[in-house]
Design brief:
Helix content is about 25%, strand content about 15%. The protein has a seven-stranded mixed β-sheet with strand order 4-3-24-23-22-5-6, with helices on one face. It has a six-stranded mixed β-barrel with strand order 28-32-29-31-30-35. A four-stranded parallel β-sheet has the order 10-9-8-20.
């Protein structure tokens, strides 16, 4: 239902939901439930529910919403025939992209078995920078993979986090933290949600967080207030880097005599003997500064010395001009962080053994915790900003320490993880599973997904020279690239649970037109579009085939350790959904549809040796699937083995679903205390992780203050590395952005924008009471957020002649929106913002065509552009994605705008609203779906008052 995935108990009467409460025995939310969770009743009976498979009526156009009912047999046969043909000819002609799918392990497996590289989920337009920036640094990341240990922290710094992220657990933790006397600092352009209860709000200009973080690191290095022991022994800060411009090995680490590429098999400079020694040599004192020469004259320096030089000019005064945070406050903040991490820690009596076999009687606490999310990530400069945050946390020794950042199993992973994507056309063959995982973690240019001519292998251009480390794919580019046929056209696009025709598109108007556009022969540029969702959204109107998904209360599901689990700091946790209601009408779980299709298509992991279907349904698949024959590792970790007595690993248990249902639908494997900390270097944990399939090796995970992975791409771009080379137009771009040390520069979009004409940053955030668009059509939650306004600092609005409550024009270089203004002192003066996805197109989501959401609500997406002029960015001619050049993270928060009173004349030739009390742009309502009754006048629902779920009273 939402990404928090709290445990709930659902109460029924006469077969209908009467009450939903938090499960007090669930480790994630401990019985706490929010408005979203309670309002699941209204989600279940929403008039927007899709109830039967539909096909676009012959002779009608996409977007008109004219459908006719078909049977599931016909829908599945249509898909089977089409996909069978594509798999036998060119599997990459089929693209599967999913939204906030909670079961990406299954959807990814389906794509891999089918043989298409064109698969991704929502991460590319959510927070891939957060995952990639941190995992490429220390092997873990915020949210599902790790987070702040507020039970032992004394100072908590939250950066760019909206109030919906990890909502209930964060509220619980913050409440305890503040009652215990902890100090909470929020760094954010907007003060809402969590920030509203912060002890201090530090307003910052959007897209400048990286500059602030670099200045903080600069201060720690300048004053020597960082953890030198941790930096020397647990990071690569002491490892020697070749400093030899023009050499093929320039900027790479010096290996020890073993000659391996492992991060632990490198050299230090011993400050005692003044000579190079293998890293971790007993008794050596590794230098963290200075320049040296090897015996053969090779110039080298410790990585931390190169970081010092990189940040020499990143002073607080420099950052103050960029961020709006004073130089004095930056210095003070650095001191506060150092004091918390270095001076307020204590030695806890927790014995553990490190990877070298050295026994430690204690673990040192580091009571400084951070949390950051999309506000830091969703910029085209976000990857290096998050690298800066990761390095700041690492220099202070907070990684997997009590009170700092703590990993959640199955993390930490290798830097980068041992998952490789397809590298070329040889990995995409007819009727054959994909050679590699659709989404991988490249270690060098050799791991890119390229055709023989160097062009992208994937339709979204992930893992190409445009976005080499796009580990979550670029879902926001799929429709545009397929429409243009760049790098090639596709035949069938299946979209699950993502509103790509509205709030999940950058520049919604253009995308809607692309879905309608046809080739010269009259066929659509994207020939066949399949949409699967539980609700009628703006996207469903464009489907050729529309498949109705179940609600979360009507299906079996798993929050798996193979996917994005709900683990806790003290051990791996997974959980299940057990349905409390039968599927509504003719709905089917999308997971069930995939298992059915996989069996019909004969995908190897889903059939027996004789070609017969292996799994009768999705629950059967979850119980009996193993990652490899006899591995004992499957989708669920609890109650494994024939008798259900094994944990994490064991034979499939036919009673596994029953056991989960008897145990609050959750399984928590508590790690022994000796394995709960310092897991990057903890021998007990590393052995345990290898034994249970989380890693293939038990080697330590060394923190990459300096990234030789990034340097390998820079060397290729400079022509100093043999093998794959970027096209000439992208050489300078790759060489610049693949800096092995973090740096800050303005977001890419600013280079294509007249900042004097568009002086304000515009951002959105999701409210705590909603999750994407799915909850803003909920009859109860609409009473909290029934419309949205543009929040503007009063001084800025008044300077433009705009009063509180006035209608205004919001204009970017790419579009215009008409909305209403609301004054707010809780927004820094250079920023305007609104709630995301509250604004709707008229007639969708089961709402009245004149509902507030469509008449006065608005969408900032109309102002955003998914592509930028390449020549403005030094990337050749044509267009290039408005995304981070490293990861492909969508630059949602980089747009700049200006404000004008609504009475100002429109741009030449632009239409104007029909009503002075109406937002703009507006779109014609689509036709009602075949089974939709007339819209209710009052959105009120009473359990037991109707014979059919969804019928209003």
């Amino acid at each position: 239902m939402c990404a928090c995935r709290c445990g709930i108990n659902v109460h029924l009467r006469d077969g209908q939901v009467r009450f939903i409460e938090g499960n007090p025995n669930h480790p994630l939310n401990q019985g706490v439930i929010c408005a979203k969770g309670s309002a699941g009743i209204m989600k279940q009976v929403s008039p927007a529910r899709l109830t039967q498979p539909l096909r676009r009526k012959p002779g009608t156009e996409r977007g008109e919403g004219e459908f006719e009912p078909i049977s599931w047999d016909e829908a599945l046969q249509t898909l089977e025939d089409r996909l069978r043909h594509l798999r036998a000819t060119d599997p990459k002609q089929f693209a599967l992209f999913t939204g906030r799918d909670q079961m990406q392990a299954l959807t990814g497996l389906f794509a891999r078995q089918y043989g298409t590289p064109n698969y991704a989920a929502h991460g590319g337009f959510c927070s891939v920078n957060m995952a990639a920036g941190m995992i490429y640094t220390f092997g873990g990341s915020f949210w599902e993979f790790g987070g702040p240990d507020l039970d032992r922290a004394r100072l908590f710094v939250m950066i760019g986090t909206a109030e919906d992220h990890h909502s209930n657990p964060m509220k619980i933790a913050l409440s305890k933290f503040k009652r215990a006397g902890g100090r909470f600092i929020s760094i954010n352009p907007v003060r809402t949600g969590y920030s509203a209860i912060a002890d201090e709000w530090i307003p910052i200009r959007p897209g400048t967080d990286g500059a602030l973080l670099l200045a903080l690191v600069h201060e720690l290095l300048r004053t020597g207030r960082f953890d030198t022991g941790f930096s020397a022994h647990y990071t690569n800060g002491a490892q020697l880097v070749r400093v030899q411009p023009g050499d093929a090995q320039d900027g790479l680490f010096i290996p020890d005599a073993s000659g391996t590429a492992s991060s632990q098999d490198r050299m230090w400079w011993d400050a005692v003997t003044q000579r190079p020694v293998p890293a971790w040599t007993e008794g050596a004192q590794p230098a963290l500064s200075g320049h040296y020469r090897l015996a053969d004259g090779t110039p080298v320096a410790p990585a931390l010395q190169l970081l010092r030089e990189q940040l020499a000019d990143s002073t607080p005064e420099w950052a103050a001009q960029i961020t709006g945070v004073s130089a004095g406050r930056i210095r003070q903040l650095a001191q506060e962080m150092a004091q918390a991490a270095l001076d307020q820690g204590e030695d806890l009596p927790i014995a553990w053994t490190d990877w070298l076999g050295r026994e430690h009687a204690t673990v040192r606490s580091k009571p400084l915790a951070f949390h950051a999310m999309r506000g830091l990530a969703a910029h085209s400069n976000g990857f290096q900003a998050i690298r800066a945050l990761s390095i700041l946390m690492s220099l202070l020794g907070t990684i997997d320490a009590p009170g700092g950042f703590r990993h959640k199993a199955p993390y930490p992973k290798d830097v980068p993880p041992e998952v490789r994507n397809p590298r070329g056309p040889q990995d995409v063959r007819p009727d054959t599973p994909l050679g590699g995982a659709p989404l991988g973690w490249p270690t060098s240019p050799d791991d890119l997904a390229l055709m023989d001519d160097g062009s992208p292998l994937r339709i979204d251009k992930a893992f190409s020279w445009e976005h080499p480390l796009a580990v979550h794919g670029l879902m926001h580019n799929v429709i545009t690239n397929a429409w243009r046929g760049d790098p090639y056209p596709i035949d069938t696009l299946l979209i699950f649970m993502s509103n790509m025709a509205w709030n999940s598109a950058m520049n919604t108007v253009d995308v809607r037109q692309m879905l309608r556009d046809k080739r010269e022969d009259g066929g659509y540029r994207i020939p066949f579009l399949v949409v699967c969702d539980a609700f009628q959204s703006e996207m469903t109107a464009f489907a050729d085939l529309l498949l109705p998904d179940t609600s979360y209360l009507e299906r079996f599901d798993a929050m798996s350790l193979l996917d994005r689990p709900i683990s806790e700091f003290d051990g791996p946790v997974d959980s299940v959904r057990v349905p409390v209601l039968p599927p509504l009408a003719q709905t089917r779980p999308f997971q069930e549809v995939l298992v059915e299709l996989a069996g019909r298509l004969g995908l190897p992991a889903f059939v027996n040796a004789d070609g017969s279907r292996k799994y009768k349904d999705y629950p059967d698949f979850v119980v009996n699937y193993e990652t490899a024959p006899g591995s004992g590792i499957g989708f669920l970790s609890g109650w494994r083995g024939k008798d259900g007595t094994q944990s994490l690993k064991g034979e499939p248990n036919p009673r596994q679903w029953e056991m989960y249902a008897k145990n609050d639908c959750v399984h928590f494997h508590h790690l022994p205390e000796s394995m709960r900390y310092m897991r990057n270097w903890n021998r007990g944990y590393l052995d345990f992780a290898q034994e249970h399939g989380w890693r293939s090796r038990n080697t330590p995970i060394i923190i990459a203050l300096y990234s030789d992975v990034l340097q390998s791409f820079r060397l290729a771009a400079r022509g100093q590395r043999a093998g794959r080379q970027p096209p000439e137009a992208l050489r300078a771009r790759v060489a610049h952005h693949f800096d092995p040390l973090p740096f800050w520069e303005p977001p890419l979009e600013h280079a294509a924008t007249d900042l004097s004409r568009y002086p304000l940053a515009a951002v959105t955030q999701r409210p705590m009471a909603m999750y994407h668009a799915w909850d803003s059509q909920n009859a109860w939650l609409r009473q909290i957020h029934g419309h949205n306004r543009l929040y503007v600092n009063p001084a800025v609005a008044q300077e433009r002649g705009i009063a509180d409550g006035d209608w205004l024009w919001i204009t970017s270089p790419w579009g215009r929106v008409r909305a209403r203004c609301q004054f707010s002192e809780a927004v820094e003066p250079g920023t305007v913002w609104t709630w995301n996805a509250v604004g709707k197109a008229s007639g969708f989501w089961g709402l009245h065509p004149r509902a507030e959401e469509s008449q006065t609500g608005f969408l900032l997406n109309h102002l955003i552009r998914e592509e930028l002029p390449a020549n403005a960015l030094g990337a050749g001619q044509g267009q290039i994605s408005n995304s981070d050049p490293v990861t492909g993270q969508a630059g949602w928060y980089d747009v700049r705008v200006r404000l004008d009173p609504a009475e100002a004349p429109p741009e030449t030739g632009e239409p104007v609203p029909h009503s002075s009390a109406q937002s703009w742009p507006q779109f014609a309502p689509a036709a009602a779906l075949p089974d939709q009754t007339s819209q209710p006048r009052v959105l009120r629902y009473v359990a037991g008052a109707s014979s059919r779920q969804g019928k209003s009273t």
